[in-house]
Amino acid sequence: MSSDKFNKDVIQKIANLARLRLSPEEATEFSEQLSKIILHFDEISDLDTQGIEPLITPSEIEYSTREDAVKQNFHAADMVANAPEKQGNLFKVPPVV
Amino acid sequence: MMDLLTASMSETRKAIAEKKVSAVEVTKYFLVRAEKLNPTLNAFIKFNPDCVKQAESIDQKIAKGENVGVLAGVPFGIKDLLCTKGIETTAASKMLTGFVPPYDSTVVARLKNAGATIVGKLNLDEFAMGSSNESSFHGVCKNPWNPEYVPGGSSGGSASAQAARLVMGTIGTDTGGSIRQPSSFCGVVGIKPTYGRVSRYGIVAFASSLDQAGPMVSTVQDAALTLEVIAGIDDLDGTTSSKPVEAFSKNLSADMKGKKIGIVREYHNSELVHPDIRKTYEQALETLKNLGAELVEVSIPLTKYAVSMYYLISASEASSNLARYDGVKYGYRSDFKDLSSLPLDDFYAQTRAEGFGKEVKRRIILGTFCLSSGYFDAYYNKACQVRRLLRNQYDEAFAKCDAIISPVSTTPAFKIGTRVYDPLKMYLNDIFTTSTNLAGLPGMSVPFGLTSDGLPIGIQLTGHHFQEQKILNVAYALEQNSAVKGKTPSVY
Amino acid sequence: MSTKISYRGFEAVIGIEVHVQLKTESKIFSADATTFDSADNENTSPVSVGMPGTLPVLNKKAVEYAIKTGLALGCNIRKKSVFSRKNYFYPDLPKGYQISQYDEPICEHGSIQFEVEGKSKTVGITRAHLEEDAGKSTHFGQYTLINYNRAGIPLLEIVSEPEMHSPQEAAEYCRTIRSVVRYLDVCDGNLEEGSLRCDCNVSVRKVGETKLGTKVELKNINSFRFVEKAVEYEIHRQIDAIENSEKIVQETRLYDPDKNRTFTMRVKEDAQDYRYFPDPDILPVIVTDEQLALVKKSLPELPLQRAARFVKDFLLAPSDAHLLTEERELSDYFEACGKACGNYKAAANWIISELLRELNDSKLAVHNSKVSAQNFADLITQIDQGVISGKIAKVVFKEMWDSGSTAADIIKAKGLVQVSDVGEIEKIVADVITANPSQVAEFKAGKDKVIGFFVGAIMKASKGKANPAIVNEILMKKLSE
Ligand SMILES: [Mg+2]
Ligand SMILES: [Zn+2]
Question: What is the greatest pairwise CA distance in chain A?
């Protein structure tokens, strides 16, 4: 048995959303694998979670905030040093229309 | 000179502080060893050119009579998921090749602050996604007990380097078992602290609500000491706890009399478990009983769903965490000939298609799907709800025991390339480790048994939140009765 | 419910999102500076550039400012609010997601009141939530350059109910929001620098229709006048389209002030899937009762309340009270001045007619004025005590404005003290009457209007210094003799 939740159209739509270009072979492979995987993960759908607040941070950590103080430890040159392409101290990307 | 292959961190530090041996000598000893054995193991993917310089500065401090930290002159290897200032940090991905962080992760900063020297960066599964180290862009790392076998993952490089004693200590990270499983496969001591115990700042994020870094070292003593150094609240991570960090290493006690050790009913008849693993587990129970511990049965029925919950949540978070790898600010960008006519979406899609490996892509697709409209409630949110119920079951279990004991993984280390590539099957092997991360609990692996082929097998101990001391103590007791004790890997 | 405003048989429905840049020293999730004019990427750090492994740590002040604004807008403040990730790809967004608040915003269910053409209007505030700003893109045709100095600056996004029905209401709503956040001192309100950004959602429907029309979002409007013009244009564009049987497309449009029209920026094809989920890097924001009480106590009197008090206590005209309370600085100045001279009405008149004119002409803020509230009060006292006339006072004020000297010094140095000596004035009056026999004859013939001529001539002869009340009295006496 297999689920069609991950048919190729879905895979393509999700890949676009994730900005990932998939080859046709990858799309086929992922479609098959992820359909099987999600079918297994569907086991949680039977559990009763009515009214249960989702748990995000699993341990008890006290909420805290930062004081509003400036610490300028870095310079622009450090921040653009790893850029694949830059102009001066700015990041360069394709034209954004 | 002392035997650096067996010396503890504190013995070594003491000898250095008392000038019986210099930090430079210690560092060079391990550097020579690492450079000799690494071609076989592929544990290191980058050596730190400044390592000897760091050692020199420790020696200079000592010469001047200045105070040095508790890890002064102790050489460490760091999983290449942790940012190291001035040293390329890749997460074993093509996507981050060439990335040189202008900052240290807090864990690395604290190690350096305590005087540790950084030998280099250790191999891992790409972006820590995997449990065999086979998804590394830098090639698979080998298990020093038998180089035909995987070291486990994702912190495979840390486990391999430590087992072969290429360094005195290593740091790994654990999102669903990535410290404990390779520790078990390679016969080292690895601890994943309570969520919030150790700062995540500067650690390439995989799944933010699950990730924790921790020591992967030779002994429980060294684990306790290293944890003391790296744990504690951090201004740069709002999810670190302000709970004081205990003197874990001083407080270590192997006295098991009256200690209540929980055994999980639901794990009893797990058919997945390899017979050698079962045997080791039963021997561990026997040992603890003989030491005066009381075995109590606890029930955590939802642990059955841990793998599903884990992959739904971790893939969702990962899909968002990995969105920043887009070819704009750092790392890989596809080799575009001409930007001027390039649609922005193609710029992203091609860069990310070329920069990420297959396992990473698979999880990004899975996670994006789980968060997408129409599926959010059924998958991501549902998993988070069940996650709360799972944690509640652990809370009940820990009302009855000091620590829970279990196997680490269903199988010992396996041969490289032998796993039929079935991701679901691979994921299901994480049954014993993932619930610890989901519930935010501290967990560790301590070497205890050997397979019939002579590969090490670890035992997993899980504690309640911020009760690292309790599991360290149980591990300390097991360590003294371990079949792995005194044995060394074949590549040594 | 206010009366519906009809446009060619249509009704406009307008809701507004205002992004308020909070005036913190450092960014919302990192310690980078927030200064406006820094060099390229100078106000950045690994956190704001989204480098691997970096984490957000929440700025206390940003939360405080959000609470403050929420309270001023009558909102409920959530005891627990949540930061979520809004996932989308854009080069100005360094992490591939914006940290914002989604289903559990810090402020909800408030309202704001203002006046449009003398009528009071109340608009509901749906929510106000904290989020981080994105970076800035500069386009060069062949490529685009990205600066992350702005990335991570704290924003409070204030979302109104779709309860406005005219361009005037829309503009006044935005003005009032600006006035409130400036009163609270949580935002500098500078539209040109983008500290306050107003996005208007506009739709139209046939009068009487209850279903909302397709809405169009107007962005990039950098003045309140343009809010009015852009909305006005958009209402008519949509009505034209409907009347021509065209379909209104759900889209984002930009306003071009030079052409006074809006044009398509992007069409929202399939609604974007932002895949919101709670950010695991940030714990839920907890607001305690103590903290809430503390912020409540620190709230200043707001413009509307203050204007009402000015009308009630100082008997100002409502329009004057409104004018004086638009800016907190000005109303503080007014109150200080009125208190020092004891004549609030005169203070109001003088500030509105003289000070505001000078400030507007020179485009200065109140605190740039060389005339302090105390000095202005002294000038008014000189008038009230009859030392100088109102007319002379205008000359003195101009001098004070230019030089910063006190009224007393200027009056003394220039010999401007008003002549109230009856003997001296009698002499001038007598001279003027003697010199103008024909006008005297006209007066005797019943032409009262010539009195003005005599007063003018007398004031001129006294170089404006004669006390007008005494002049009047003596003139009437002499003419009737
Ligand atoms: Mg919005
Ligand atoms: Zn917004």
Answer: 58
Q: Which of B125, B112, B247 is nearest to B175 (CA)?
A: B125
Q: How far is the CA of C157 from the centre of ligand 1 (A)?
A: 7
Residue B257, judged by CB atoms within 10 A of its CB (0-12, 13-18, 19+), counts as exposed
- Interface partners of B (3+ CB pairs, < 8 Å)? A, C
Look at residues C78, C230, C472, A33 and name the one whose alpha carbon lies nearest to residue B369.
A33
Q: Report pLDDT digits (tens) over A31-85.
A: 999 999 999 999 999 999 999 999 999 999 999 999 999 998 999 999 999 999 9
CA angle B14–B15–B18, rounded 5-degree value = 85
Contact state of C60 with A54 under an 8 Å Cβ cutoff: no
| Side chain identity at residue C411, one-letter code | I
Could you count the other beta carbons within 10 Å of the beta carbon of residue C382? Answer: 24
- Contact between chains at A72 and C33 (C-beta distance less than 8 A): yes
The alpha carbon of C393 and the centre of ligand 1 are apart by a number of angstroms equal to: 52
Whole-angstrom Cα distance, residue A17 to residue A5? 16
Assign B489 to helix, strand or coil.
coil
pLDDT attached to residue B271: 75
3-state SS assignment for residue B323 = helix
Q: Which helix (H) or strand (E) holds B3?
A: none
What H or E segment, with its residue span, contains residue A95? none
* Contact call for residues C314 and C338 (beta carbons, < 8 A): yes
- Closest chain A C-alpha to B9 CA, distance in angstroms: 30
Token code pair at residue C374: 């105390």
Pairing assessment for the beta strands B189-192 and B403-407 based on DSSP bridges:
unpaired
Does residue B95 carry a pLDDT above 50? yes
Digit-coded pLDDT (tens) for C24-55: 999 999 999 999 999 999 999 999 999 999 99
Radius of gyration of chain B (CA): 22
pTM above the 0.90 mark?
Answer: yes
Q: What is the pLDDT of residues B310-365, one digit of tens each?
A: 999 999 999 999 999 999 999 999 999 999 999 999 999 999 999 999 999 999 99
DSSP per-residue string spanning C169-228: HHHHHHHHHHHHHHHTTS----TTTTSEEEEEEEEEEETT--S----EEEEEE-SHHHHH
Spatial contact of B142 and B416, defined as CB atoms under 8 Å apart: yes
DSSP, res B84: B
Q: Could you list the active site residues of B?
A: 79, 154, 178
- CB contacts, 8 Å: C97 with chain B: 320, 323
- For residues B133 and B2, which has the higher predicted lDDT (pLDDT)? B133
CB C160 within 8 A of CB C170: no
DSSP 8-state code for residue C287: -
- B39 inside 8 A of chain C by CB: no
**Pairing verdict, β C97-101 and C80-81:** unpaired
Which amino acid is residue B252, in one-letter code? Answer: L
Check whether C2 has a pLDDT greater than 50. Answer: no
Between chain B and chain C, how many beta carbons pairs sit less than 8 Å apart?
107
pLDDT in tens, B184-211: 999 999 999 999 999 999 999 999 999 9
What span, in angstroms and rounded, lies between the C-alpha atoms of B362 and B360?
5
Residue C281 Cα distances to B195, C96, C116, C192, angstroms: 12, 15, 45, 34
At B201-239, the pLDDT tens digits run 999 999 999 999 999 999 999 999 999 999 999 999 999
> What is the C-alpha to C-alpha distance for residues C319 and B400, in angstroms, rounded to an integer?
73
Model pLDDT for residues C400-436, shown as the tens digit of each residue? 999 888 888 888 877 777 777 788 888 889 889 888 8
ipTM of the complex: 0.97
Distance CA B291, CA B254 (A): 9
d(CA B34, CA B157): 12
Q: Chains that contact A by 3+ CB pairs under 8 Å?
A: B, C
The helix/strand/coil state of C14 is strand
